[in-house]
Here is the input.
Amino acid sequence: MVATAAIVLAAGQGTRMRSRLPKVLHPLAGRPMIEHVLDSLAAAGIEHRVVVTGHGGELVEAALGSSAANARQDPQLGTADAVRVGLGRVPRSVRHVIVTMGDVPLLPADLFQRLLREQAEGEATIALLSARMNDPSGYGRVVRGDDGRALRVVEESDADAATLAGDEVNAGTYCFDAEWLRANVGQVPASASGEYYLTELVELAAGSGRRVAVVLAPRAELTIGINDRVALAVAERLMRTEIAERHMRNGVTIVDPDTTRIDAAVEIGADARIEPWTIISGSSVIGPQAVIGPNAEIRASGIGARSVVWASVVEESSVAEDVEIGPYSHLRPGCQIGPGCRIGNYAEIKQSALGAGTQQHHFSYLGDADLGEQVNIGAGTVTANFDGSQKHRTVIGDGAFIGVDTMLRAPITIGPGARTGAGAVVTRDVAAGKTVVGMPARPIEARRRGSRSQDDA
Ligand code: UD1
Ligand code: CA
Here is the structure.
């Protein structure tokens, strides 16, 4: 039986963002803002989560997937109306309902738990989260009575000068007694703007002699509501700082947190070292003792233990342990780099697998290639993988030695231990252990015989 549920309001247009993208899908530390809210609720142990969608509903629902139930609010008549709609998806067995905003993404899980405790154990009808802001503009103000309980919340547009002077704001997050909420959410009068404000419930409860408890957030900055892109950047910085500090406490060196960006889902092993001007995004996993940067970008990739990525870009690829990459290399999506490989300078690799100990040096391109172990790719080597309409694969066996400036016209297979001469243009498969030279490349014995007969003439 579910006793507690959460309703997350995310149906509003977010006009102040001036964006085509629904506000709650704007990314924060690499993930849609609303995912942070849902994660935090999950971390607080609240398993039943309902998101109220409306503006851009299809997009928001697609992004949510199965992480929450959703309820459509159409038209969007205000936050009280949104809660009324959300309650339709909350089981009758639920006795405590947390309501929070999809655009308040930094609230830690323990604040939800505290609200729940204050409401449930303090026998309050509502527990409301407040914060003292240096700049309270844009938020509703909490008005308290002499006994410290909340009397009402006044929206900025409705507030007189005395109320506006108060610095205690409504963070937009509450825990309600479910039964009282079901009975009263429809009783809210329309505001001057014609919207139904959820904040009216505070006065409704307090006015009928019920207890409205207030939890003052210990860190006001974490209650920030994202109404425009300036607030989005403020939240981004706060979240990045938290992420960097979490990794540092876990034993990761971040040389210069101010120039390092690490997405929320990234995992980093102990004793890894993140050098300045580095971006690690998506659900990348960095192994212990790896060194990333300076000037590296790792997107949705795995980097093995002790590997080094210096001034290079790695996208959607997996790099094993003890690999050295860069400077100035680009691994495009779909690469698997085996242990001990050396890649760079100016190497580009796409959709390719490199076996253990393989080396690719100096301005060279491998695309759609499968390389064995201990292969040497000479400077300037290129796989000609595209014939103008289709892509073809190149296969290179263990221990092959590809000479500088070799062109490999795919589809093609170079056998284990085979060699190509400098400047070879290889258009036919090369058998294991054979050496080919020239343009087009031919077995070296044939070439020697050919030149001798020419000399004889
Ligand atoms: C709201 C509060 C304000 C509080 C602030 C905290 C109200 C009336 N005001 O103001 O007291 O200080 O949050 O950040 O509640 N939404 C819907 N359906 C609607 C309207 C809005 O789902 O019909 C959603 C929005 O998508 C948004 C959230 O509710 O995620 C808050 O709406 P918003 O317009 O941003 O309210 P604020 O003006 O910030
Ligand atoms: Ca808001």
Notes: Residues 229-249 form the longest helix (21 residues). The chain has two domains: 4-223, 247-456.
